[in-house]
Write a structure and sequence with these properties.
There is one protein chain. The protein is 23% helix and 27% strand. With 289 residues, it is of the alpha/beta class. The protein has two domains: 175 residues, 3-Layer(bba) Sandwich (FAD/NAD(P)-binding domain); 91 residues, FAD/NAD(P)-binding domain, CATH 3.50.50. Helix 1 runs parallel beside helix 2 and helix 1 runs parallel beside helix 6. The termini are close together. The model has no long low-confidence stretch (mean pLDDT 92). Bound molecules: flavin-adenine dinucleotide. The site of flavin-adenine dinucleotide has 37 residues, from helix 1, strand 2 and helix 6.
């Protein structure tokens, strides 16, 4: 029996596990510490198969239940390191111990950094969002802002310009790195807090001034998490794991997919990546008999 490890139980990891588990001779283990981006998605209405919006939590729970039905093993722990054994298998060190695998997929999602000022956590799902492509529609014809100062912030702001009545990048005292395209405003002042009642209503700056707003999108730093790949020597591009069109990293037997390889940070794309990685893992296991 060959052993496959999937690191991450989000849509990318679960999708891969479904394809792998339907092969008789592969034992599939999914290790996850349980913080999928999906758990933050209140309402998903751009994924195939649902007449009404579905919560990210429900989507995830159904996905995990389906994988368990097919015999996928789940372990709740954090992968701390991945290294080669002498016979070129993979040894995964987790908070629960270590185990050896023939092939591995990294599906660890993207880290979304969170600023520290007051109001961010309180208004999550009530005006504070972490994904412009996902939630822009909920703020159509309303004023929105993006907190961040790099390429990632600009990417999120651009995704809002077609639907929002105005889009303002708030750099929170940082210098904006990319050039600002037409149609996007910018405020460089330090932010004090986000205020509102039921929903967010305004951003208050340290100098006492305010910006009335209906939605704030957090895009601080970069989207991506590539630490495990980097540690075993796989090529990465900034915070993204580099893969080819079959989700193969530069290390034979090691695959990656979902938000951690960049591109469209959406469920549909993560599911495709997972399926594609699994097909490559099956091919790899057959060729390494
Ligand atoms: C607020 C919000 C709203 C969204 N709305 C939508 C939407 O409407 N439509 C849509 O299509 N998409 C939406 N998304 C995006 C969607 O949730 C992601 O694109 C999708 O979850 C990515 O799947 P993934 O499997 O790559 O990563 P994730 O779902 O983030 O899963 C990553 C997994 O890796 C695990 N992990 C990470 N590091 C380790 C480690 N070291 N050891 C063990 N486990 C680890 C985590 O526990 C988790 O199980 C939204 C995201 C957010 C944040």
């Amino acid at each position: 029996m060959k052993k496959a490890l999937i690191i991450g139980s989000g849509p990318a990891g679960i999708s891969a596990s479904l394809y792998l588990a339907r092969n008789n001779n592969i034992e599939v283990t999914v290790v996850s510490h349980g913080e999928s981006a999906l758990l933050k998605a209140d309402k998903i209405e751009n994924y195939f198969g649902f007449a009404e919006p579905v919560s990210g939590k429900a989507l995830l729970e159904n996905g995990i239940a389906g994988a368990k039905r097919l015999g996928v093993k789940f372990e709740k722990s954090e992968v701390l390191n991945l290294q080669f054994t002498n016979d070129l298998k993979f040894e995964a060190l987790t908070t629960l111990g270590s185990d050896i695998y023939d092939t591995v997929m990294i599906a660890t999602g993207a880290k979304r950094a969170k600023p520290k000022f007051k109001g961010i956590t309180e208004f999550e799902g009530r005006g504070v969002s972490y994904c412009a492509v996902c939630d822009a529609f909920f703020y159509r014809n309303k004023a929105t802002a993006v907190i961040g100062s790099g390429e990632y912030a600009l990417h999120e702001a651009s995704a809002l310009t077609n639907t929002s009545s105005s889009v303002t990048i708030l750099t929170d005292g940082e210098q904006l790195k990319p050039d600002l395209p037409e149609g996007i405003n910018r405020i460089d002042k330090k932010i004090k807090e986000l205020v509102g009642s039921d929903k967010i209503e305004a951003v208050i700056f340290e100098d006492g001034s305010r910006l009335d707003i209906s939605g704030v999108f957090i895009a601080v730093g970069t989207a991506g998490s590539s630490d495990i790949a980097r540690k075993i020597g796989a090529a990465v591009d900034g915070s993204r794991i580099s893969v080819d069109s079959e989700m193969a990293t530069t290390i034979p037997g090691l695959y990656a997919g979902g938000d951690c390889i960049g591109g469209l940070l959406q469920v549909s794309k993560a599911v495709y990546d997972g399926a594609s990685a699994a097909m490559s893992m099956i091919k790899f296991l057959k060729s390494s008999k």
